Amino acid sequence: MNALRLVYFGTPAFAVPPLHALLASKHRVLAVVSQPDRPKGRGHQLQATPTREVAALHDIPVLQPARIKDPAFLQSIRDLAPDLGVVAAFGRILPDDLLAIPRLGMINVHASVLPRYRGAAPIQRAVLAGDEETGVTIMQMVSELDAGPMLAVTTVPIAPDATSGDVEAVVAAAGAPLLIRVVDRLSQGTVPATPQDPTLATFAPKVTKQEGAIDWNRPARDVHNTVRGLQPWPLASTHLDGTRYVIRRTIIENGTTDRAAGTVVDAHADRFAVAAGGGTVVRILEIQPEGRRSMAARDFLAGHHLLPGARFDT
């Protein structure tokens, strides 16, 4: 097996397990390309991206172009003369001029079973939809977004109460060994590619803050999926008496109610139940008043004399 010279494009935590796998393989990572560092926290201090931190530990050069089409950046990639480009959640659309540089093209670690959930937020969209399964596709990159032929696919289950953050960790871990199998096979020759069926394509646009507002008129299952699907960002929230509350964790109750959607059905000890659409009931397990820490339902109810009949805004 010939060792390939690679350039790795990735930014967030999802991109770290595949990068670790490449660094442990026989192949050589010439450079890591990440989005620029961003200010975070109350002090707005610049924080290195997760992939930049990994690269620093291994003395690998990091490129963080402000513009991906910058001629100087493109020339720096040409100067590296990579055999292959590997992309995992880089966060930007790559231009054709960049895709054409590596001798073997560029492949992408995409967090869904394509052609389902092409786009920026495949994991969140799968959780929001209540899917019971998702996966990873290693695909050859082409100009059209996430439309390239598939080189390998694996599936993973989505637990009923798993958040998007939980699923992301599972999917990233599953994608790492799958990526290595594909890169190893590419080093030995061509890999059979399966074209996607465009008629089956669905899209996963980036999640927005506006989607965080809980619609209590939706059935309990939809409310529950909203809460877990929007973690770790932008989080699901609701209002009561003018105060915003982030709902961190819920379960679906077996019983039903005739109360209007958004109405508190039960609020004592650790039972914090709210009516949802169609007479279904959501039980809140963890809640965070705006500007305060997150707390279990029991702790919240102990400090808030909330009575059945109170109603969250829908």
Describe the structure.
- With 314 residues, this protein is α/β, with parallel strands linked by helices.
- It has two domains: 5-200, Rossmann fold (3-Layer(aba) Sandwich); 209-303, Formyl transferase, C-terminal domain (Methionyl-tRNA Fmet Formyltransferase, Chain A, domain 2, Roll).
- It contains eight helices and 15 strands.
- The chain has helices spanning 16-23, 50-57, 71-80, 96-99, 122-128, 164-188, 220-229, 297-303; strands at residues 5-10, 28-33, 38-40, 45-47, 62-63, 84-88, 106-110, 133-140, 150-157, 236-240, 243-252, 264-268, 271-275, 281-289, 295-296.
- The strands form three sheets. Strands 5-2-1-6-7-8-9 form a seven-stranded mixed sheet, sandwiched between helices. Strands 10, 11, 12, 13, 14 and 15 form a six-stranded antiparallel sheet that branches.
- β1, α1 (16-23) and β2 form a beta-alpha-beta unit.
- The longest helix is centred in the middle third of the chain and has 25 residues, at 164-188.
Element string (H = helix, E = strand): EHEEEHEHEHEHEEHHEEEEEEH
Which strand order does the major sheet show?
5-2-1-6-7-8-9
Q: Tell me, what's the shape?
A: elongated
The CATH topology annotation of the largest domain reads as: Rossmann fold
Q: Please describe the biggest sheet, giving its number of strands, its sense, and whether it closes into a barrel.
A: 7 strands, mixed
CATH evolutionary superfamily of the largest domain: Formyl transferase, N-terminal domain
Q: In CATH terms, what is the architecture of the largest domain?
A: 3-Layer(aba) Sandwich
Structural class based on helices, strands and sheet pairing: alpha/beta
Share of helix among residues?
25-40%
Unreliable segments of 5+ consecutive residues: none
Distance between the termini: 59 Å
How many beta strands in the DSSP annotation? 15
Strand content: 25-35%
The DSSP helix count reads 8
The averaged pLDDT comes out at 96
Q: How many discrete structural domains?
A: 2
The top level CATH class name of the largest domain: Alpha Beta
Determine Rg (CA atoms, Å): 23 Å
